[in-house]
């Protein structure tokens, strides 16, 4: 759905050149939720503004839904932009317009038939759960409600792609979760492809299928959340999974950290280990959490007995990550 190839973007500021993007390549598949995470200044907004054609790349290619947007003449560019919805951190609503009038705005621009507008607005309001706020003004809404209006407005022209620039960064954790759930719901119901950028790991944890880490204008890590979590040295794995302190209870035992996900997280792995090998297991620390669709567990244990190595091998053969501490 979105293909970015070797994208570079420089800004000139007085006599200085700032490299905001330095050769970014990524592919967002149709129907997925793709997250780009990075610190402030990493180039996230620049990337999204280039994809949305609000910013002209210095070099590189961007293809959205089969159309190379980097080489479109102005009239076609406007049309292509309507296929891309966008939501923002500060909502960018028009304060003098009601909720319904804000959502009507993009419909007016594309000359959506007047007689059908009311129905379309009602449909969009119901999609984001704001039916009863049609005539309210933005100042009368909570942050979460404002973002729902932003989402309804972004979806008015039936885009295939929704771009989100820190859309939950101004919201409290509970409201963030409800907005992320709405986005996941829209992704499923409408088949909407979502590219979201964020500096919050929690957003990545809650809804992304795949993620890229952007640092100083370059992607330094990219993959599905599942893949990255099983790589102990990945930044995503280190950021999403708890880091246990090294603790030793018994100096004779072997101390290991076991990470399990998917099916293995739901199996009584340790019980079967104790039953099948002549060992003792002492749990030192543990954590079980939901990351995207998966439950991911991490355990620090001390194992002692004659068959420790065979037991560890057994765990590895089950597909668990086992690290000796
Ligand atoms: N319009 C601009 N003019 C000059 N420099 C800019 C402009 N927009 C962004 N930059 C610079 O480009 C870099 C990346 O910025 P940005 O894309 O906003 O990062 P992020 O969204 O990850 O915080 C920063 O160093 C920023 O100062
Ligand atoms: Mg930004």
Automatic annotation (TrEMBL):
Keyword Membrane: yes
Pfam hit, one: NIL
Gene3D superfamilies registered for this protein in UniProt: 3.30.70.260, P-loop containing nucleotide triphosphate hydrolases
Keywords in alphabetical order: Amino-acid transport, ATP-binding, Cell membrane, Membrane, Nucleotide-binding, Translocase, Transport
Domain ABC transporter: 2-241
Entry's family note: Belongs to the ABC transporter superfamily.
InterPro entries: AAA+_ATPase, ABC_transporter-like_ATP-bd, ABC_transporter-like_CS, ACT-like_dom_sf, MetN_ABC, MetN_ABC_transporter-like, NIL_domain, P-loop_NTPase
Cited PROSITE patterns: ABC_TRANSPORTER_1, ABC_TRANSPORTER_2
Stored SMART domains: AAA (SM00382), NIL (SM00930)
Entry GO MF terms: ATP binding; ATP hydrolysis activity
Protein known as: Methionine ABC transporter ATP-binding protein
Gene Ontology BP term (one): amino acid transport
This protein's GO CC annotations: plasma membrane
Keyword Transmembrane: no
């Amino acid at each position: 759905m979105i293909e970015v190839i070797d994208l570079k973007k420089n800004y000139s500021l007085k006599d200085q050149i700032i490299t905001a993007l330095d050769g970014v390549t990524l592919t967002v598949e149709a129907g997925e939720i793709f997250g780009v995470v990075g610190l402030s200044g990493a180039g996230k907004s620049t990337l999204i503004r280039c994809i949305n054609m609000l910013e002209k790349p210095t070099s590189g290619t961007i293809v959205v839904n089969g159309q190379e947007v980097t080489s479109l003449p102005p009239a076609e560019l406007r049309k292509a932009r309507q296929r891309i919805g966008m939501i923002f951190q500060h909502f960018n609503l028009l304060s003098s317009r009601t909720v319904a009038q804000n959502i009507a705005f993009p419909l007016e621009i594309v000359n959506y038939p007047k007689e059908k507008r009311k129905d379309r607005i009602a449909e969009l309001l119901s999609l984001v759960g704001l039916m009863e706020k049609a005539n309210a003004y933005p100042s009368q809404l909570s942050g979460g409600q404002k973002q729902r209006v932003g989402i309804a407005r972004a979806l008015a022209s039936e885009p295939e792609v929704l771009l989100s620039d820190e859309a939950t960064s101004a919201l409290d954790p509970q409201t963030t979760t409800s907005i992320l759930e709405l986005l996941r719901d829209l992704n499923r119901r409408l088949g909407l492809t979502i590219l979201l950028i964020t500096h919050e790991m929690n957003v990545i944890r809650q809804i992304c299928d795949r993620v890229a880490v952007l640092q100083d204008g370059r992607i330094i890590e990219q993959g599905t959340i599942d893949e990255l979590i099983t790589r102990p040295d990945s930044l995503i794995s280190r950021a999403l999974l708890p880091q246990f302190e090294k603790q030793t209870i018994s100096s004779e035992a072997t101390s290991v950290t076991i990470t399990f996900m998917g099916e293995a997280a739901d199996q009584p792995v340790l019980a079967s280990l104790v039953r099948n090998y002549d060992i003792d297991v002492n749990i030192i620390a543990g954590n079980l959490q939901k990351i995207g669709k998966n439950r991911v567990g991490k355990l620090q244990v001390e194992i002692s007995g004659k068959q420790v190595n065979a037991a560890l091998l057994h765990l590895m053969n089950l597909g668990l990550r086992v690290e000796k501490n």
